[in-house]
Design brief:
heterodimer, A: 84 residues, SH3 type barrels, 6 strands, 38% strand, B: 597 residues, alpha/beta, Rossmann fold
């Protein structure tokens, strides 16, 4: 684990293939509940697999689940990128 | 009779389990206050019959979606003897929140860990006994698709049910549910040591396929190629079967019905044969396409490709208030609108579904194409005809986009669009057959009365009073055609063609037959000549434009009504399409005339 504080960013600005840890979800309650049920818990590692064309949706893997999330929603998922 | 509810998250094979349990004899039940269709069936378990209800797939008992509200209302209003929880064993790390919530509410439950075959492949190891002890409910690994563990599960369910003396009803469900922090801790406590799983999903087949199918450059061309293949399969196979069915019905009419009814007065004969029997034939004509459509859709959907299609098309569809699945259904609508509208059921958000159902009828279906081929050949030079047809396809797209843009505010989707992209799977042939068969049954059951009544009503309009020739100016439809002339005159549509539009209300394939009756010419070259003598190409194109945009057919209205469960919605769809048809034809006709054409 790096000792310096990890840079926080949002899920939509990760590069394809990059992993990160969820810091905070800043979403309307319906979406937040749905993501919670899909395994989006704080501290959980998450990976961006690919992004759709024309700032389309993101393909995300979280543990044993893969989902597509719209770009605008992914912007509100704050993550700390894992270095390395 | 004891009652069981089947509950689980989406993509867990819950329906596969329900179909295996009920043998596809399920029907739609009627529950007060519940707005979505719930399938239910009577099943013999052990020595007794029990009622099994299939609840919609939900993620969370506390969730805000329509389906989640429906499940809550159901649990609070219907006493249950048992809840059967179906989870995907590979995703037990997150799906375990459902059994925990059911336990908090205090409902008796049996937990079925489905897709154990897939879980083993992904390296997920579960100890059912430990889980069972911690959750306080029987836990059984099964494969609903292949049947492994199924018999043992049924025995346990029957035994648990036998021990359950009185049904339980959830009261004030939301107050029983614990907050998330507590839930997260409980999830850890339940899973710790009982479940071993890899840190991340690694399904090499899925990853490889996705790399090709979701490729930034190849993804879309492959998607269109796949859709073209599906489309060809459905309609290339469907058309001959439809024709065969039509010929069989005509043969039966010729050898049995006509001789049998010959002694009756001509009007009664006509009513029974051209009204009632024709109505049955109209319903029957859709059965083969619906069957083939859902056979193919079972593959597209169950394989996981439909959610990939949503991923590929979402960037464009999001702006229209739709999603990629609406696009797939609209594409399929170019073959036939009816199964495409039935297919929107995969979209669980009511707003999204309604908007898709409003858009699909503008897809230029094969029945309309028949009319346009005939008219284009009759009215235009050989080199112009294909361009005319092509322009109508463009109009069809434009009408769909305009409709989505105008109505997206009214039918907005309040549900979050987070779609799971499950690992690629292939459905068994039996799964496909069951799905197709259920859809055909559903259509037959919910739509036949409306369609048959509609066909009969239009026949009466064309044949009353009884002492004048069919569809002539003296009949009811002729009189209505005359009365509506002021409305259609600005479009260049004469009273004869107006009456043809009446026929088109039933189905577009009989517009040509209708024109043949009205102009008393046999179909084909004679009819083409008769029409060409009366109208010019501007009028013909205006008529085609109107035919393209106004209500596709009675069967489409029937499924719009039965699927939306709202006559108002069906009326809105009719009114909007008629309005759009009128305005478009008006603008075209008057514009062309103003240009001196």
């Amino acid at each position: 684990m790096p000792t310096s504080p990890m840079p926080t960013t949002n899920l939509a600005s990760l590069k394809p293939g990059q992993s990160a840890k969820i810091v905070d979800l800043n979403l309307e309650s319906g979406l937040e509940r749905r993501l919670y049920a899909l395994g989006f818990h704080r501290g959980q590692e998450i990976q961006l697999l690919r992004r759709g064309w024309l700032s389309g949706p993101l393909h995300i893997r979280i543990r044993m689940t893969e989902v597509m999330l719209r770009h605008c929603d992914a912007c509100k998922v704050h993550v700390a990128s894992i270095i390395g | 009779m004891k009652r069981i509810a089947v509950l689980g998250m989406p993509n867990t094979g819950k329906s596969t389990f329900f179909n295996r349990l009920t043998g596809s004899h399920a029907h739609i039940g009627n529950w007060p206050g519940i707005t979505v269709d719930l399938l239910q069936a009577k099943v013999k378990l052990g020595d007794d019959f029990v009622e099994v209800v299939d609840l919609p797939g939900i993620y969370d008992l506390r969730g805000f979606s329509e389906d989640e509200g429906v499940v809550r209302r159901f649990l609070e209003s219907a006493p249950l003897d048992l809840v059967l929880l179906v989870l995907n064993a590979s995703q037990i790390d997150r799906q375990v929140i459902l059994p925990l919530q059911v336990k908090q509410v205090g409902l008796p439950a049996v937990l079925l860990l489905n897709m154990v075959d897939e879980a083993a492949r992904f390296g997920v190891k579960v100890q059912p006994e430990v889980l069972s002890e911690r959750l306080g409910m029987p836990v059984l690994p099964i494969s609903a698709k292949y049947g492994a563990g199924y018999a043992a599960a049924i025995a346990t369910i029957a035994e648990t049910l036998r021990q359950q003396d009185a049904p339980v009803q959830a009261n004030q469900l939301e107050e029983c549910l614990l907050p998330d922090q507590q839930l997260s801790a409980d999830i850890q406590a339940v899973l710790d040591g009982a479940v071993q799983m890899p840190l991340q999903l690694s399904d090499r087949l899925t990853s490889r396929l996705d790399r090709v199918l979701l490729h930034p450059a190849w993804g879309l061309p492959l998607f269109f190629a796949a859709m073209y293949l599906v489309f060809q399969t459905i309609y290339a196979l469907g058309a001959p079967v439809q024709e065969l069915l039509g010929n069989s019905l005509a043969w039966f009419r010729g050898v049995a019905l006509e001789p049998l009814l010959a002694p009756l007065p001509t009007f009664v004969q006509g009513f029974l044969l051209d009204g009632l029997y024709e109505g049955v034939g109209t319903v029957a004509a859709f059965l083969p396409v619906i069957f083939l459509f859902f056979l193919c859709m079972a593959i597209v959907e169950d394989s996981g490709y439909l959610s990939r299609a949503a991923f590929l098309m979402d960037a464009l569809m999001e702006r229209l208030g739709l999603d990629g699945r609406s696009f797939v259904m609209s594409l399929m609508g170019f073959g036939c609108n009816v199964p495409a509208i039935l297919g929107t059921r995969v979209m669980r958000s009511p707003g999204l579904r309604m908007l898709s159902m409003l858009v699909i009828p503008f897809s230029l279906c094969s029945a309309r194409l028949n009319v346009f081929m005939f008219m284009a050949t009759a009215m235009f030079a050989a080199d112009m005809a294909p361009r005319v047809i092509f322009s109508l396809y463009l109009m069809s797209f434009a009408a769909a986009i305009l409709t989505a843009a105008l109505f997206k505010g009214r039918f907005s989707s309040h549900e979050p669009l987070v779609l799971e992209l499950p690992p690629y799977r292939f459905p068994t042939f039996k799964q496909m057959l069951v799905r197709a068969w259920c859809e055909v049954k559903h259509f037959w059951f919910w739509s036949r009365r409306f369609i048959i009544l509609g066909v009969v009503a239009i026949w009466l309009l064309n044949n009353l009073p009884t002492n004048v020739p069919t569809a002539s100016p003296e009949t009811l439809s002729g009189m209505i055609g005359q009365a509506m002339h002021p409305i259609f005159a600005p479009l260049g549509i004469n009273p004869q063609l107006t009456v043809a539009l009446f026929f088109g209300f039933i189905a577009k394939e009989i517009v040509l037959g209708g024109l043949a009756v009205i102009y008393s010419q046999a179909e084909g070259a004679d009819l083409a000549r008769a029409i060409a003598q009366e109208i010019d190409w501007v009028q013909a194109y205006s008529f085609m434009l109107f035919t393209l945009l106004y209500v596709p057919c009675l069967s489409t209205i029937a499924v719009l009504k039965s699927e939306s469960k709202s006559m108002r919605f069906a009326l809105l769809a009719i009114a909007w399409s008629l309005g759009l048809a009128w305005i478009s034809s008006f603008l075209f006709y008057q514009g062309a005339r103003a240009l001196g054409l």
